[in-house]
Amino acid sequence: KEDFPIMLPVVVCAYALGAIVLGRTSFGRHVYAIGSNREAARLSGIPVRRTELFVYLIGGLCVWIAAWMQLGINRTADPKVALSDSLELNAIAIVVIGGTSLSGGRGNVLGTALGASLLAILFNGLPLINYSEPSHKKIIQGSIIFLGAVIDTLQRRVAK
Fold first, then answer.
1. What is the largest CA-CA distance in the chain?
2. Residues 96, 115: contact at Cβ < 8 Å?
3. In this structure, are residues 41 and 33 in contact, taking their beta carbons and an 8 Å threshold?
4. Residue 47: CB partners within 8 Å, gap ≥ 6?
5. pTM of the model as a whole
6. For 94-137, how does the pLDDT look when each residue is reduced to its tens digit (9 = 90+)?
7. Out of 34, 72, 81, 113, which residue is the most buried by the measure of CB atoms under 10 Å away?
């Protein structure tokens, strides 16, 4: 008997909650304002330090939840297991694919969810075409991040 994977509803709930908070609350508008221009946000009356503290607290909570889910997958609490997967490089590639600006102040949760889906499809599909060299995965991730940074820079120049 297969157990129902609890990770899917947890991730969907996290994305939905993140989208609601960032898109429909003053806290979300404050986060975008601080990401766009910290000093301008401070001068406009946004409590920058308190907002940043809450962002880091929420980030820590998400990391804690992700660590518990990873513990369920690996059945071990060895910290070296996650280090071999370059999870931080995955996270950067996911948000870049999703359209989040590396300079801050622009992006959305739906784009990040689509970026995660696209990267998962890409990396799960590579072994199907006998292209599963671990070093190639990092090259692809780095190329995605580089391409996203170039596109972001070009978009910012055009917007000015």
1. 58
2. yes
3. yes
4. 30
5. 0.74
6. 888 888 877 777 788 898 898 888 888 887 887 787 776 777 77
7. 34
pLDDT greater than 60 at residue 1? no
The owner of tokens 């190329």 is: 143
Tokens encoding 67: 């660590």
- For residues 104-129, one letter each, b for 16 or more C-beta atoms within 10 angstroms of the residue's C-beta and e for the rest, the string is eebbbbebbbebbeebeeeeeeeeee
Question: Which DSSP string corresponds to 59-82?
Answer: HHHHHHHHHHHHHHHHS---HHHH
d(CA 17, CA 15): 6
Computed over every residue of the chain, the mean pLDDT equals 84
For tokens 């003053």, the residue is 26
Q: Are 47 and 31 in contact (CB under 8 A)?
A: no
- Rounded to whole angstroms, how far apart are CA atoms 98 and 151? 12
